[in-house]
Structure formats: C-alpha cells, structure tokens
Amino acid sequence: MIILVIILALMVVILGYTTFNLLHKVERLEDELNKRQDIITSYQTYINSLGEIIHNVNDRIDTIDASGTFKSDDEVGFFFTRLKALSDMLKPYNIKL
After folding, report:
1. How distant, in Å, are the alpha carbons of 11, 38, 72, 74, 75 from that of 34?
2. Rounded to whole angstroms, what are the CA distances from 72 to 28, 33, 50, 79?
3. Are 52 and 94 in contact (CB under 8 A)?
4. How far is Cα 34 from Cα 38, in angstroms, rounded to an integer?
5. What is the predicted pLDDT for the residue at 74?
6. Is the pLDDT of residue 8 over 70?
7. Residue 80's closest CA among 66, 93, 91?
8. Alpha-carbon span 19 to 25, nearest angstrom
9. Whose CB has fewer CB within 10 Å in the chain, the N or C terminal residue?
10. CA 10 → CA 4, 6, 25, distances in Å?
11. Which burial class, exposed, middle or buried, applies to 94 when counting CB atoms under 10 A from its CB (0-12, 13-18, 19+)?
C-alpha cells in the first residue's frame, strides 16, 4: 500500500512538472506568434499601400496618355514611353482593393 502511494505521488510530481513545462513552452510560442502577427500586419499594410500607389500611378498615366501629347516630343516622348513601360510591368502586381 505504501509503495502504491509513493508511486502515485511520484507520478503526480512528474505529471505536474511536465504540465508546467509544457505550459511555459506554449506561452513562449504564443508570444512569438503575436510578434510575427504584428510583422505580418505591417507587411500587409505596406503591400496594400503599395498596391494603391500602383493603381494611382496607372490611372494618372492613362489619363495623361489619353491625349497623346507627350509622344510627339523626342526627349519627353522617350521618357514617357519608358515610364509607361514601367507602369505596365507593375500592373500585374496591383492588388484589387
């Protein structure tokens, strides 16, 4: 009977220690997850603002390009065609808001 009580007491101590240890590990992981969640949220905000900038630039270039006045001048036309090409390369990365 005494041996059974000793065995049960040892099991309670061992299980208590493992539970306490696992609790601390879970709390540490939750803290790391919260930090990463903050980073992810800031990245999402950055990507959304970048998508909005791309959308605004594309709209503005399309508005300017509608009249076609910049294509006639050599230097300005060259710059404008390069700018239009860059804008077209960024269009696939535009996020639909």
Report:
1. 34, 6, 55, 55, 52
2. 64, 56, 31, 12
3. no
4. 6
5. 66
6. yes
7. 66
8. 10
9. N
10. 10, 6, 23
11. middle
